[in-house]
Amino acid sequence: MMRIFTDIAEARRLLLRRIPATEPPLPPHVQAGIQRVFGRNLTAVGVAEEICIAVAARGDGAIRDYTARIDGVELTEYEVSQPALDAAYARLTPPLREALEHAAARIRAFHDHERHEGWQWISPEGTLGQIVRPLARVGIYVPGGTAAYPSTLLMSAIPARVAGVREIIVTTPPHPQGVADVILAAAAIAGVDRVFTIGGAQAIAALAYGTETVPRVDKIVGPGNPFVSAAKRYVFGTVAIDQIAGPTETVVIADESADPACAAADLIAQAEHGETSSAILLATDERIARAVDGEVTRQFADLPRAAVVRAALDRTGGAVVVPTIEMAIELSNEYAPEHLCLLVREPWQYMGLVENAGGIFLGEASPEVLGDYIAGPSHVMPTGGSARFSSAMHVGDFVRTMSVVGLTPGAASALAGDAATIAAAEGLEGHARAARLRVRADKPGASR
Q1: Which of 249, 275, 338, 368 is catalytic?
Q2: Residue 400 in contact with residue 135, Cβ under 8 Å?
Q3: Which of 273, 339, 379, 394 is catalytic?
Q4: How far apart are CA 327 and CA 438, in angstroms?
Q5: Can you identify the CATH homologous superfamily of domain 247-388?
Q6: Which in 3, 225, 230, 446 has the greatest CB count within 10 A?
Q7: Span 79-241: which CATH code?
Q8: Is the pLDDT of residue 445 over 70?
Q9: pLDDT per position as a tens digit, 234-257
Q10: Does the annotation mark 334 as catalytic?
Q11: Is 338 a catalytic residue?
């Protein structure tokens, strides 16, 4: 089932190599839909740009137009009322309602530890410091498509709420039969302020530019299809974005103590997200790799999404036999996975070696699936190797920091000479003169 590499150099070249992101080819049925809607062939980037330009120019009219042509839904009112959110919550089965409430409580408790506070350094020179302020308004895109993702809504909205964001807006694609109750109920649980049934690039544009109905936000977060990703790239700079989310990925490191059934289940859970998902095993012995491979074949056979799992493992999955756990972690650091699972005898012993990962899951009792739904940290994590330079979603994503400078006149006079010298070296005489003015002892300055 899985490709098993015993040559590490070959594994680096064929399985663990990061290929620079390019615009993915669109399936034939999607290309046909683009031709029908736009009257010509366009890439995902081309579609996103055209939609963003139209929404910026025509607002709600463009949203209604594209929603009818792309989603087949005629929108008159596309904001979901609070009573409708409450009704959806009431319609959930008690076990599902309780599970979502439990998850929300754990997510909130985890992110409560991340609260950012400002600081002040007061000295005879005056005061230096930082002020931390939450973003005023944030937009969260929750995918629709073939599945509903209440977990993504909770994992995005709750850190924003903990950060103190004043207004949280959710957009999610419309459906002729209505948005799934579980999404609307999650919005009620998370305490979001407004929900709009708008999908795709038009939702991103509405959040970025604002329309007659949808307020403009300061930051857009949340994963989506190639059109959503392309629209987020297009509007970046007008608003902030969290990341360009790529296919999900996991690296499982297993030694002889690992249960092959658990390792296989964790790989399958990741692969069933989609055909481009990456599920990679790094095993310290070929027997382990083959045992896990056998379990994968056994377990996935009766899955509803078995075809998706097989396609993902055939395309981007596999196993690598490594001599030591240390080598496995070295390979993982090079790959920089979204999720790293340490199914080894003493996982805590090796955590200090991990440099690049969105999340670290320590031992068989800490499977990624619990992180996906209920452990506590947000499951929105960096993909595509971006764990080398970015982080899992946290409260800091929803605040901004302002520096504070409040010097005494004496400190200003003492510092001004060096400031003027540097300014003159840069050829900025106006800066230099502004600094030199502060050298005069009788010049008033900010004091505390």
Answers
A1: 338
A2: yes
A3: 339
A4: 58
A5: Nitrogenase molybdenum iron protein domain (3.40.50.1980)
A6: 230
A7: 3.40.50.1980
A8: no
A9: 999 999 999 988 889 999 999 999
A10: no
A11: yes
